[in-house]
Amino acid sequence: MAYNYQRIIIKIGSNVLTQKDGLPDHNRINHLVEQIAKIKKKGIEVVLVSSGAVASGRSLITISEKFDSIATRQLFASIGQVKLINTYAQQFEKYNILCSQVLVTKEDFRDRLHYLNMKNCLKILLQHHVIPVVNENDVVSVTELMFTDNDELAGLIASMLNAQALIVLTNVDGIFDGNPDIEGAKVIEEVSGKPIDFSTFVSTGHSQFGRGGMITKSNMAQKTAQLGIAVHIANGTKENILVDVLDNKVAHTYFVPNRSASGKKKWIAHAGNFAKGIVQVNEGAKAALTSAKASSLLPVGVINIISAFKKGEIIKLVDETGKPIGLGIAEYGSDKAAEMMGQKNQKALIHYDYLYLEC
Ligand SMILES: Nc1ncnc2c1ncn2[C@@H]1O[C@H](COP(=O)(O)OP(=O)(O)O)[C@@H](O)[C@H]1O
Ligand SMILES: N[C@@H](CCC(=O)OP(=O)(O)O)C(=O)O
């Protein structure tokens, strides 16, 4: 049966848009745009997260090897993004569709106000039937300021916009149960239920022009599906792939969405990288938090304030062994939390509505 989505995010990896020699594959871009136009005609809202700036830049300028890799990447991305967005704009115009450029950095997801500004911008674009084409702002995002890759960015955008689905196009048919280059490896067609450790069969490497590789894609997909968004990982080099994925006519990896989480929980889930405070809880608190019943974190279950935090900041929760359990917004600061630690009948440190659990 075909999937019935109203709002989807489509992420296209560098390898899908790039030929073997590293230059942009215009025929493929045109074919993908043609499919997106068909999808849009059905009334489905689409946000595109497209890699390819560096690959486009590489096709436009030749540089000597004496420049370091970061500067080279900035140069390629800065020139290439213009070319990439122009290509999209020209192609979408054929179908009377307007597209727009949205360049973001990891910092834009850090602050709730920035986050809401970005969300409002994307929403007004969608309300005006524009296709936002999102990419990382590679010119200013370098080293530790970077997203792991655009898969991470696509997951963030999907959560931010409460999309029903995220379609990740890459250069293989989905997640394989082993190295896809080795005969006998098969595509895992469905992932559901309890989180899986993908590192046992997905290698950490990435393909020639990709950044994060399949392992980051798998982990992001799992996290996004946990937040109630379906994720499809499919082969973007195949003819008619987007239409076939939505019609459920092609083998690929489908992550079944979990019960839907609130918008705030989605933000908390993805803001973990910015958490400053760390709180350790005992086994009893861990069992209560991870049980089927909705529970807030009470001071009685807190055994250690590992790192300080203020009221309203995101804090990480770890168990007695130091394993991460989840994230939440602190109802009060670490000084007060330290005073109440271990005591019964005290105000919750994290209210259930502002708690996101990883296990
Ligand atoms: N178990 C696996 N299943 C699928 N792909 C895998 C697996 N292990 C490693 N890979 C590699 O991951 C690559 C896709 O990730 P990546 O290079 O990040 O591409 P993209 O540019 O689409 O983001 C594939 O080309 C494949 O070689
Ligand atoms: N922002 C970069 C792409 C980085 C990236 O994550 O690439 P990929 O792993 O192919 O999705 C670019 O436009 O070239």
From TrEMBL:
Q: What is its main location?
A: cytoplasm
Q: In which pathway does it act?
A: Amino-acid biosynthesis; L-proline biosynthesis; L-glutamate 5-semialdehyde from L-glutamate: step 1/2
The record ties this protein, via PROSITE patterns, to:
PUA
- InterPro entries recorded: AceGlu_kinase-like_sf, Asp/Glu/Uridylate_kinase, G5K_ProB, Glu/AcGlu_kinase, Glu_5kinase, Glu_5kinase/COase_Synthase, PUA, PUA-like_sf
Location in the cell reads: Cytoplasm
EC number of this enzyme: 2.7.2.11
Q: Name one GO cellular component term.
A: cytosol
Please provide the Gene Ontology terms (biological process) for this protein: L-proline biosynthetic process
Record NCBIfam families: proB
Q: What does this gene product do?
A: Catalyzes the transfer of a phosphate group to glutamate to form L-glutamate 5-phosphate.
**Annotated protein name in UniProt:** Glutamate 5-kinase
| The species this protein was found in | Mucilaginibacter xinganensis
- Gene responsible for this protein: proB
